[in-house]
Design a protein that fits this description.
There is one protein chain. The protein is an alpha+beta fold. Among the domains are: about 35-180, Chitobiase, domain 2 (2-Layer Sandwich); about 225-360, no CATH class; about 615-765, Sandwich (Jelly Rolls), CATH 2.60.120.260; about 790-920, Galactose-binding domain-like (Jelly Rolls, Sandwich), CATH 2.60.120.260. Helix 7 (about 295-300) packs across helix 8. It is globular.
Length: about 900
Amino acid sequence: MVTRRKIAAGILMLVAASFLFYSLALAEGNAWLNKTNGNGKKVLAHNGNVMYSVYVSESADAIVKHAAQELADYLTQVSGAPFDLTISDGTPIGPAFLVGQHPAADSFALQGNHAEPLGEDGFIIQSAGPYIQIIGSSSRGTMNGVNYFLDRYVGVKWFSPTYTFIPDKPKLKVSVGYDVQIPRFQYREMFVNDGNNEQFRAHNLLNGKSHYRTQTPSAAGLNSWSDYVPTGVHNFHALVTDSVYHSGGQLLAMDEEVRRIAAQTLVSRIGQRQANGLDPSYGFSQQDAAWVPDPASRSFADAHGGTLAAPILDMVGDVASRVQTQIPDARIGTLAYQFSYPAPTGLTLPDNVVVTLAPIDKDHGKSLDGAGNERDGQQIAKWAALSDQLVFWDYLTNFSGGGYLQPYPNLYAMADTIQFLALSPAVKGYFGQQTGGARGPVGVGFDELRTWVGARLLWNPDEDVNALIEEFINGYYGAASSSVSEYIEAIHQSLEDSGASLTTSTPISSPYLSFDTMHQADGLFEQAEAAAAGDPALLDRVRRMRIGVDLIILHRRAEFAQVAGERNIVWNLDTTNRLQRFKSLTQNMQSFRIENGELAQLYQLLEVERSSSPIPDIVQNLPDEDWIELQDYDFRLHAGAAVVQDVKASDQAAARLSGSSTAWGIQMNHTNLPREGRWKLYAYVRVDPGSGSSGAGAFRFGLYPSQPAPVGVTFGEVSDGEYHAIEMPWVYKFNPELSVHYLWFQPAASGAIHNLYVDRIVAVREKPPAAYNPGFETIAPGGPYPDGWQTAGGVWDSGTAHGGSRSIRLNPEPANAFHVIYTGATKWIPVVPGQKYQVKGWIKNNSTNGNVSLGVRQINASNGSISYSWHPGALPSSDWTPYTVTFTAAPTARYVSIYFKSDQQTDGPAWLDDVSIEEVP
């Protein structure tokens, strides 16, 4: 497969590059180190006889004693021999494991005799004389060493919270020399709903305990977790509570009183944590919202690279320094997220600030340093120049659409990203988000595979990704592994071939979830289930991986059935049994996505009977790649909106919102749309008429943030109760600076309608802007004048031209104050609000006086003028010369028209030819 070759090549490059960074990383004290010397084979047990006892010191704490007990228990299960734990400081009789510090190790110069700093999590596994010692410089390090030994040396694999592979080795032998292990990443969290099973995470050497997990006390022996990332995110308003200091969604970042209050509050919060025996840290982070900054913050941003991260970081750094004067070891955490992700220039951060980089809008199906993610990936080096206390927040799941259940093929992207981050010593931690919280499902799709592979790479990013995936699949899916492996490769390949992006709201209709891919996946899972039929536990694991495939097929069954019929492909979609299987596997789940995630809502959505929607008239003659249909199951629904059966809708179903609602109840996130190109949007909308008058408002729609202003539709336009294709009066283009961006629909407050229905939204690719008939060579149907141009006093000239044989000419007209030729209304050029453009034209000017100029008129949705932009004027008595006009499309601009004018003072003719328009980066 293409994916495997790509990853293999990437690993070789990363391994080579890692040597360049190794010495720097070691100097930072955060190198990942995996050093093994010696090859002494030790027989631990043979045919029920124990050869090594397990010892732990009487003075060891609960964590070390718990780890020692687990060592004895698992060795017993693997070998069948009765390993017992001895808690004693006495000298063992015969060969023994020494877990942690122990007096018996003194005579063999053990006790962690090493040159490298192990940190909180590192450890040594070493043998000397009759002893094998597993020891870390902390209790958690010793615990990690035991878990590492059981996994890598003995073969115990904790694949999931509910399934552990225990090898059967009556003759248990291992090779132990001198093995030093230091993790590459200081903080390692794979955030998934695992039932808050800390033991599972500890077994896999993960040390993060954030978000809802902090609310559950640790069991005995599991109470020492990394506090590297300060607790608390999105809390500006919670720490500075007076709304007078709130501004544009965030804080008055440059205000002295804001900083004083924030520092005072943080000192109090951190003091409370210390009184409760917790670490002296706390988060100080932006709200989870956009920011319209106050003038002082905007000015500071403009002076430091133009990014709004500048005033935020200046405030956070200042506050952190103030807190540190009162609590010297205090640490403050903050986010670089959405508007604050681009790094500022000309700033530094105090050492006690930990920055979590969270590029939520990157393509999560590609590596951070891969094509399409250049903007986000390049920020890592820029942030590393500001701070060496960085954590990376990776988004590994879908929040909308099919949510956590939707197939999300980003295994290789996640692995590539971790390996890329490992090359920057400034990045100390990684948080891989696979759920929104404890309400997410447990053990579905790729969750457990991602968690297991991610955990291995966070310890040692040089591991072979393909080998890790293969090891997990073989161990977890057993007899069904070949079919499951083929499915995993197929859906990753489909993502790559389709060119689709993975976002946090990837739609169910995304092209990587195509008919061919889902048909192949369904067949592979039939094979997998047949292979697992004799093992109920294995069959359950296979079916939980299959949930995502069932979800897509159930949603799109009408479409898939039609395609199968057209191609004469036999595919029994078996909807009744498939839906029953889906419900039986998901009935105990609390939520399948962040918003509107109740399973009852999903079941209702799946039970709606649909037909295959016809191709919209507006795209009948367009190739498939030039248009996209987004059905109601891709919408975000609020305020009581729901998908209902509707025989008038294209597929017999639509999103419905009560006409009494005043909420933006039906929404479509911008991440459902492609990141490349420009797109015209059309919404298919109808209403249940009420008692409104013709001119009363029926509903409104708009883009959030409001660029341009919302648009209203009157009752008279839709009072027939039928669906209408409503053209959105703008061109959509992906804007990486807008993390929150969506289309919304809202009933008008007039009460004119009973219900509002939105069936589907169709996006049509807008071609790059181009002037029509730019060389004036084509005659208009009504001639004789150039097609698409209005010649108000101008002349179509066939005797003079810059290119071709034609141009347009303006003759002197002293009586005409505005002598002009311009683009006709039917050929206006669509533009994107906020986009910069350049219009170019070649002018020949035989006039010695007056002004001859090229210009642009911006036009709004009502065909009204917004503004004009003009070149200062062509040189008098000049031959063909290029002139340009540069402008930025206004927020309400929809079209532009190109103008060519001369004033009353000109005394000779002027010609225009070969005009063009293009976007300016």
